[in-house]
Predict the structure.
Amino acid sequence: MVSQVRVAGVGMTPFGKSPERSAREMFGDAADEAIEDAAVTPDQVEEVFYGNFMGEFAEQQGHQGPLAAEAAGVNAPATRIESACASSGAAVRMGVDRIRAGMADVVLVGGAERMTNLSTAEGTAGLAAAADALWEINQGVTFPGAYSLMANRYFEKYGGDREDLAHVAVKNHDHAVNNELAQFQMEITVEKVLDAVQVCSPFGLFDCSPMSDGGSAAVLVSEEFAQDHGLAAPVAITGTGQGSDSLALHDRESITGTPAADRAAESAYEDAGIGPDDVDVAEVHDCFTVAEVLAIESLGFYEKGEGIKAARSGETTIDGDLPVNLSGGLKAKGHPVGATGGAQISEMTKLLRGDHVNSDAVSDATVGLTHNAGGTVASCVVNVLEVVE
Ligand code: COA
């Protein structure tokens, strides 16, 4: 019988600017917290999957699997997983698979990224490596540029405008106000978003996630291990799915949808035996405001072309029917790219366990979903978390 995978412990560093700290230090801190939260010992960890995207570029550091294990004080097989900004979402998925396969009972997953030791121009160049080198990077495409193409085409096809997107940013900043781990703990207004300096039309500063440093970790255990060791691990990962797409936008049939996320969601729902209507709360990859719109459509919460109104109508706010990004999302919590997928698991586990600052808003929630994307969603990992006891 396939073992159910429990999230026994989670940890993450505050996200923000700490350019003097190495990725390994930040992962070490997050891992220490997750191991303590799980009430396991480092020598019980049997495998490590670590997400990082641009360590060679930012820190001249490769060979990061064993380095991450060492930073966590763990001596176990350790592998770095790279899938651009979806790196640690994919690392979580590897851990889930490992436990389900019966190959391990205790797996440490997560990731880290150091970005603000670079200038914005250098960081932008580093991030651009997640696009297609032959057809995009060489032509000067950057991620704000690529997502702005998607936003403008979405407006042409379905309608909607900058103000609709501004509501996504306002909502996510609102959600982060009391989140001590978030990079920006301040409210903003629609006017402030619309008046901000332009980054790439239609995006202004507040349509973009920031450059961030941070680490995240989770200890996943088999149900049997949790029972045998008396661990309090009420949240399980009951479904996981992953999808891929062409790296280059021009190779896609359409740029107003994200088929890799459609496929990841379909697999994760099937795996968990649930559908979109069962989800109570979601953390999605809002690297740019339009990305949240595309995510909630791919996840089946909204029809294509309908997601653009969700934040403005209040449906995805903290008081709405389906709160999205109660952590503040990438926009306000920050986006140290290799840490983001693991941070989503950390925030969602706490939201469902009842020990997150915003848990009261979802006190009846039993099903949470995380959506973590790489590049212009050329890769996507969706994980379903459920309260099982
Ligand atoms: N949202 C809100 N405020 C932001 C911000 C953001 N995204 N990015 C920076 N700021 C703030 C900084 O805190 C700083 O405020 P301060 O002066 O009060 O300290 C100010 O704006 C200037 O910061 P700086 O780092 O100089 O910004 P920048 O203009 O060089 O860069 C962006 C801003 C938006 C271009 C940059 O954050 C960016 O490229 N983001 C996208 C990252 C990305 O592509 N990630 C991968 C997604 S796939």
